[in-house]
Specification:
The chain is of the alpha/beta class. Among the domains are: about 180 residues, P-loop containing nucleotide triphosphate hydrolases (Rossmann fold); about 200 residues, P-loop containing nucleotide triphosphate hydrolases (Rossmann fold); about 80 residues. Helices cover about 40% and strands about 15% of the residues. It is built from 25 helices and 23 strands. The strands form 5 sheets. Strands 4-3-5-2-6-9-1-10 form an 8-stranded mixed beta sheet, with helices on both faces. Strands 11-18-15-12-14-13 form a 6-stranded parallel beta sheet, with helices on both faces. The chain is globular. It starts with a helix and ends in a 9-residue tail after the last helix. The protein binds cytidine-5'-diphosphate (CDP) and magnesium ion. The site of magnesium ion has 3 residues, from helix 4.
């Protein structure tokens, strides 16, 4: 039975549509207060604050859902850590976690988002000068350090979800160690010089010592504690009910299908309680969402009370909070999620977990310089976190869609991302922070020498670093300032010279979203015909461009007749008619606006090449020359940089025409190595536009 507190968590995100049955504002507030009091962390508020006051670095470990992320910042605020305009910053590995948690905390504080509580993530900043509790991605906080190296606006920085060990978290852990030292040094020097005067940081702000809190859901705090010279670790007791873990007898050949079967089995046979399903990405989640809806139609009328909901990184803002709302009475919710629901966010009401046993993860081969996003088995730690989600509110069940013997074979924990990703992005940032000795930098886990060398080389080829590894001015600085992978920042800078900046902005925005088209099973043929209408024989980048432009023209024409609110509806309709994913397009349009803002701030004039697609393709070649591939006699392709044999992904518009030479953006390993997002180029352009890398005979 859900307790009072859980009931509250649900009702607090009810929409503000008038509903005669909805509780009054007063009782809503009362319920929020009760919910907050009922969280395990509430009973240790005083102790936590004392420890923060006593220790400059504190490690806090606690079961997911105990209230660390939503409550601790509020405790700090109440204890006076935000006096004199100071902020508490909370970094999250995932943007969607930063966004949903900030919204929740604003609600708990009864303030509009963006005032006292706000979030800042790449391409979306809701904070204002009155923001005191600032949720952000770890990547965003790193970027702030570029502008304000002492992070002087923060009295406390909380690095949340540190167990995730994303590459940005790892860099942040090291950088904050340095910032903390620099700030203490600055304060000490200053007080010895002036007998207690204050030091001015960025924009003349007062500098005081920095408090650092590292939060993690995994029980192993040792690694963080040791890294910070034996820092104190505190454990927050959570509530965990027993979870019955079930395995399949045989390995499943199709985990998506197995997940569907399991969802319906639970729905038909198990007692009340919502279901949480772990899948790997937006495409898969949306396809399962449609399949659930389709199969529901075949059930008897009284068994159709199952409500699929989704949560993944690219979900538009206004749809994110829906998973937290309770299902209408009589309905069972089935939440289709990526690994974001493992520890980053807690969804109330879950009693059943379906674990496909896989996750999409980055892998990198520094020898070949090839990074790819692959679907791989989870670690044991991830599997345990996933099953734990079923036991938050009462005893639960977890269905692992693999045999028990497979579990034993899983890695204990996930390898830190810094050991399996392309480092060019972080190295460029460290360089622009003035940290030149990357090999000697105090990482918690050092990246391999090979990966560092490869990244330095890539940055040099992209024009961001000089031959002796120093930041190239102004190009390297400009690239570091843009919040995206160096190849894309480079592409924007080049596009400015090729007079196709408008087109490249659209390209970068479209490449930032996961699935542009959608392909409902029941309308495959229709979808294909519709897609053909956009498909360019020259390449996918041009195809995406025409989708974006056509939607723009369509909206432009209707601008006069319609209010802002209606635009959204018109857009959804256009997308549906054209088999385009409206969630993705919306995300891409927002991203476009944000990146455009950045380049305009940098003084770029956004010009368009109109229909001169030759110039645009040449610009793509000049930008993505490190990812060029040439057709071989047998119809496969050879990636020129790595020498690897790759195949054009069937989803690409160039799958059939197989041009002689292409540039591509994505490499993906499934049954074969596939390249995606490609455009045909003239091989001679490579020597002409990237002469420092290609010679004509190649
Ligand atoms: O960080 P930690 O995992 O310890 O917990 P939290 O994220 O602070 O969540 C505490 C509680 O707030 C959980 O019970 C969530 O269900 C609830 N919550 C919510 O109802 N809606 C949100 N958007 C976020 C959290
Ligand atoms: Mg948390």
């Amino acid at each position: 039975m859900p307790s009072m507190a859980q009931g509250e968590a649900k009702s607090s995100v009810l929409s503000n549509k008038p509903n005669p049955k909805s509780p009054s504002r007063f009782s809503m507030r009362q319920k929020i207060t009760e919910h907050r009091k009922s969280l395990p962390i509430a009973s240790v508020e005083k102790r936590l604050i004392e420890e923060v006051q006593k220790n400059d670095i504190l490690i806090i470990v606690g079961e997911t859902g105990s209230g660390k992320t939503t409550q601790l910042p509020q405790f700090l605020f109440n204890a006076g850590f935000c006096r004199e305009g100071k902020m508490v910053g909370i970094s999250q590995p995932r943007r969607i976690a930063a966004m949903t948690v900030a919204k929740r905390v604003a609600e708990e504080c009864d303030v509009p988002l963006g005032q006292k509580v706000g979030y800042s993530v790449r391409f979306d900043d809701t904070t204002s000068s009155s923001t005191r509790l600032k949720y952000m991605t770890d990547g965003f906080l790193l970027r702030e350090a570029l502008v304000d190296p002492l992070l002087s606006r923060y009295s406390v920085i909380i690095v949340d979800e540190a167990h995730e060990r994303t590459v940005h978290t790892d860099v942040l852990l090291a950088l904050l160690k340095k910032v903390q030292r620099d700030r203490s040094k600055a304060v000490n020097e200053r007080s010895s010089e002036t007998g207690g005067g204050v030091l001015r940081g960025c924009q003349g702000r007062k500098v005081s010592p920095l408090k650092l809190i590292i939060m993690s859901a995994s029980l192993d705090a040792r690694v963080f504690s040791e890294y910070y010279g034996g820092a104190k670790a505190l454990h927050v007791q959570g509530r965990q009910f027993p979870v019955n873990v079930l395995y399949t007898v045989h390995p499943e050949t199709d985990y998506v299908d197995a997940a569907l079967v399991t969802i319906f089995q639970i729905h038909m046979e198990e007692k009340e309680g919502d279901i949480l399903v772990f899948l790997t990405g937006q495409d898969e989640i949306e396809s399962v969402e449609r399949l659930v809806q389709e199969r529901l139609q075949h059930l008897p009328e009284d068994k159709r009370m199952l409500l699929p909901m989704t949560i993944f990184a690219g979900l538009p803002s206004e749809q994110q909070m829906r998973v937290f709302a309770p299902a209408p009475i009589g309905f069972r919710k089935v939440v289709l999620a990526t690994n974001i629901a493992e520890t980053s966010i807690t969804i109330p009401g879950i009693r059943y977990v379906v674990d496909t046993g896989v996750v999409k993860a980055r892998t990198y081969d520094p020898n070949k310089g090839m990074e790819s996003l692959d679907v791989v088995p989870t670690s044991k730690a991830q599997a345990l976190q996933r099953s734990g989600r079923a036991g938050r509110e009462g005893p639960g069940k977890c269905f692992r869609l693999y045999p028990e013997r497979e579990f034993e074979k899983l890695e204990d924990s996930t390898k830190p991302e810094i050991k399996r990703c392309n480092l060019s992005n972080v190295i460029l940032q460290l360089k622009s922070l003035g940290i030149d000795d990357i090999g000697g930098f105090d990482f918690i886990d050092k990246p391999s020498r090979g990966a560092i060398v490869k990244a330095l080389e890539e940055l040099r080829l992209l024009g961001a670093l000089t031959d002796d590894g120093k930041l190239e001015k102004p190009v390297g600085e400009q690239m570091a300032r843009l919040p995206m992978d160096p190849v894309y920042s480079r592409a924007l800078i080049l596009a400015n010279q090729f007079n196709c900046l408008e087109e490249m902005l659209i390209t970068v925005a479209m490449l930032n979203v996961e699935s542009i088209f959608y392909d409902p099973r029941e309308k495959r043929e229709e979808a294909r015909t519709s897609r053909n209408h956009f498909t360019s024989v020259e390449g996918d980048h041009l195809t995406y461009l025409s989708v974006y432009r056509e939607l723009n023209e369509f909206l432009e024409k209707r601008k006069e007749e319609n209010s802002e609110a209606k635009v959204d509806k018109i857009m959804r309709k256009w997308c549906k008619d054209n088999f385009v994913n409206s969630r993705s397009l919306k995300h891409a349009r927002d991203t476009y606006r944000q990146i455009r803002g950045y380049v305009e701030q940098m003084g770029f004039n956004v010009s368009s090449c109109g229909n001169d697609m030759l110039e645009y393709r040449r610009c793509l070649a000049a930008s993505f020359f490190l990812k060029a591939a040439q057709r071989q006699m047998d119809g496969t392709y050879r990636a020129l940089e790595s020498g690897e044999i790759v195949h054009i992904h069937p989803i690409s518009g160039l799958f059939r025409s197989k041009p002689e030479c292409v540039v591509f953006n994505e490499l993906m390993q499934t049954t074969k190595k596939y390249i995606k997002n490609l455009t045909r180029i003239d091989p001679l352009w490579l020597a002409e536009l990237a002469p420092h890398h290609y010679k004509t005979e190649e």
